[in-house]
Amino acid sequence: MPRREEKIFKFFTFLISLAPVVLVVLLFSFLLYYSIPSIRYNGLRFFTTYYWYPGQVYLPPVNVNGILVPYGSSFGILLFLFGTLITSLLALLIAFPISIIISLIVNLYINDKLRKIIISLIELFAAIPSVVYGLWGIVYLEPILSNYIEPLMSKYLGFIPFFSGPIYSGAGILASSLVLSLMILPIMTSVLNGSISNFSTPVKEGAIALGATRYEVGRMIILRGLKIQIFGASMLGLGRALGETMAVLMVSGSAFNIMPSNIYSPINTMAAALATLLDSAFMDSTGMNLYALSELGLVLVLITLIASIIGRLIVGIGIIRGYTRGEEL
Amino acid sequence: MKKIWFAAIGIVIILIAAGIFIAMSGTPQQKKSVVLSESGSTLLYPVFNVWAKNYTDPNYNVTITTQSTGSGTGISSAIKGTVIIGASDTYMSDSLMVSNPGMLNIPILISSQYIAYNIPGLNDKHLVLSGPVIAGIYNNTIQYWDDQKIASLNPGISLPHERIIPVYRSDGSGDTAMFTSFLSKSCQWWNKTVGFGTNVNWPSNPAAHGATGNAGIISFMEANPYTISYIAMTYTNQISGKLGYAALINRAGIAVLPSTQTVMNAASQYLNVIPPDGRISITFAPGNNSYPIATFEYLIVKKVQPDKDTAIALKNFIKWVVDPNGGSSPKYLNQFYLIPLPSSVVNGVTLPLVEQITYAS
After folding, report:
1. pLDDT number for residue A110
2. Is residue A326 predicted with pLDDT exceeding 50?
3. From the candidates B138, B202, B217, B222, which should be mutated to test the interface with A, based on the most A CB atoms within 10 A?
């Protein structure tokens, strides 16, 4: 029979283990509760328009269908939603091949000592605060982009849609995507490197014994065998890119009320908009600005949650299959 | 016998402890401690830090804690009572006052801003701009620097045919409120569709960019020629030699450069019309020599403070802040290019508002 202490211990650990679940539920209900007036006022327009109009808070509030809102206010997140997705996906597109190449090179062509040094350096990059990446983006990246790279791109790649000018500054979609790609590169590389170095050595050595070159081992064996892990690493990178605030805020050009016309245009993301719009939302006596921001936050949480669930599902299935086929260690 | 010894030792220990306590609390001054927490305006934050370091109260040990959070957060925190002082670049709107009737908007200083631009070759000249022209630049109807509407205000200056890049504050800001208030009063279209506030319905403009904070605006403008934006006068040293700034057409139709004097002139136009609650916009002032962009800086406080000591210490502090020999002396304000209130406003508006502060009995 268990002793009394053990029972108490069990009870409290159970209670604490519930905390993550409770916190997520609380967070959701809080966001949902605060979003309700905005959902009622903005309806579908919230997703189909790109105007974020805080309204004239110094004028008397107006009554729209029984809801008090600032005069001239209207809230749509299409621009922020598009900005979040486009910058994250472009960042993934840039970081994906680079991280695969780096992790293959360090595992196939470089000796153990050097590999450890390179990998720990790359992991060090993951620890750099995002605001430092943003600073680098403003000080070095933006001038290079606007003075050299973007004019060249517009000139020689202008035949591709969204690649021709006009170019107003270095801040915008391209700068945000590049900064983001640099930020997700370390995580993706580190995860991929872990999977590759864990990849069953007998298979690798067998292939080499059969006369395969290192390039063939990398392309035909490792990349094929690790499809799921590569996908998992990408989802991890995407998750970070979706929620990144500070670095993007600094190089995005903070567009409002206009959709980007090309890849050099200013853009805004959901996380950045949330951070910048909060202070003035307190000036609104009707609270509608705050409710709309809550709905924005709710949508952002849902998007990152969906990305993470899809990633986990696919990686999870892959791991189970891998075990049954005996590929995994 | 043992018990008596214990009792005796106990008494001695208590006496010693009491002695130490009295010695520590009793010498050399018997001041009570009061914490005045401040949060809000990023523009007032630097001067608040200097005040916090230099302020002493005759009767209290006052500690002033400061936070640079933004005017909206400052107002909201003061209403919720999480801070004693909310610092704000704008006054509370009528509807906020109705839903929070116990709040005071106490004017303490005047601040102003530049309309700055980065046009290589013209940054040492002061272009003349007007409210309607600036509104046109932001709403994309005036796209190039050599537009007829700009050229006609600046005869004899050769303007480049370059795309204008208007820059606004992406974060909520008292600077945006000042700027949009000027445009609202000088341009009907702006007043009707955009209005004024710490964040507004920005017009759609493909060339427009947002930046965070005055520092963010300045660094963006330095890196990108042909930009235009609004920058707090507090940042005079940071823009001098790097960006140009405009003379603005005021209500009298005369182009006026920003300076302490022209801003004071603008504020003094309102001396007789400031309402007793202190809430007034002083942009686009009448008068031949008035610079059209200026605002009162406010301390947002609760009329009824939680206790007597806080109330008295708060009153003393605000009185010191507006005292030309105290917080409003040039040695504090000049380095930040902030302008003290005229004494008539101090005596007629600020001090009567301060006297309204009481405490819950």
Report:
1. 86
2. no
3. B202
Check residues B68 and A327 and name the one with the higher pLDDT: B68
Q: Which H or E element spans position A114?
A: helix A112-126
Residue of B nearest to A278 (CA): B172
CA distances from A270 to A47, A239, B210 (A): 12, 14, 15
From B329's Cα to the closest Cα of chain A, the distance in A is 31
Quick check: B219 and A282 CB within 8 A?
A: no
CA distance, residue A308 to nearest chain B CA (Å): 30
Place of tokens 């057409």: B249
Residue B260 has pLDDT above 90, yes or no: yes
Residue A181 · residue A244 · CB < 8 Å: no
Closest CA in chain B for residue A267: B209
Between chain A and chain B, the number of residue pairs with CB atoms below 8 A apart is: 140
User: How far off is chain A from B353, nearest CA to CA, in Å?
Assistant: 22
Pairwise CB contact (< 8 Å): B72 & A166: no
Distance of CA A30 to the CA centre of its chain: 23
Which range among A47-51, A75-79, A116-120, B223-227 shows the weakest confidence by mean pLDDT?
A116-120
Return the bridge partners of B88, or none: B298
| pLDDT of A328 above 50 | no
Give the chain A residue whose CA is nearest to the CA of B173.
Answer: A280
Query: Taking Cα atoms as reference points, which of A194, A206, A222, A186 lies closest to residue A108?
Result: A222
Q: What is the mean pLDDT of residues A201-221?
A: 83
Contact A71 B195 (CB under 8 A): yes
Interval A240-264 mean pLDDT? 92
Residue A99: HSE in the Cβ half-sphere, 13 Å Cα cutoff: 32
Q: Out of B75, B202, B224, whose CB is closest to A169?
A: B224
Q: Do B210 and A278 touch (CB under 8 A)?
A: no
- Name the pLDDT band for A54 (thresholds 50, 70, 90): very high
Q: What is the pLDDT of residue A318?
A: 60
pTM, 2 dp: 0.87
Mutate to test the interface with B, among A135, A139, A144, A256 (most CBs of B within 10 A): A256
Return the residue of B nearest to A280 by Cα.
B172
CA-derived radius of gyration, chain A:
24
- Chain centre to alpha carbon of residue A295: 19
Residue A138 has pLDDT above 60, yes or no: yes
Using one digit for the tens of pLDDT, what is the confidence trace for B59-87? Answer: 899 999 999 888 889 999 999 999 999 99
- Using CB atoms, pick whichever of B71, B99, B168 lies closest to residue A285: B99
For residue A75, the cross-strand partners are A52
Among A41, A193, A228, A170, residue whose Cα is nearest residue A105: A193
Query: Are residues B75 and A282, on separate chains, in Cβ contact within 8 Å?
Result: yes
Chain A: closest CA distance from residue B172 (Å): 5
pLDDT(B308) > 70: yes
Whether residues B72 and A283 touch (CB distance < 8 A) is answered with yes
Q: In b/e form, how buried is each residue of A196-217, taking b as 16+ CB within 10 angstroms? A: beebeeeebeebeeeebeeeeb
Burial class (CB in 10 A: 0-12, 13-18, 19+), A143: middle
Residue A218 makes CB contacts below 8 A (sequence gap 6+) with: A104, A108
pLDDT tens per residue across span B7-20: 777 777 777 776 66
Q: Which of residues 194-213 of B touch A (CB under 8 A)?
A: 195-212
Angstrom CA distances, B167 to A80, B6, B183, B205, B257, stand at 19, 78, 15, 10, 21
Residues listed for chain B? 361
pLDDT at A312: 79
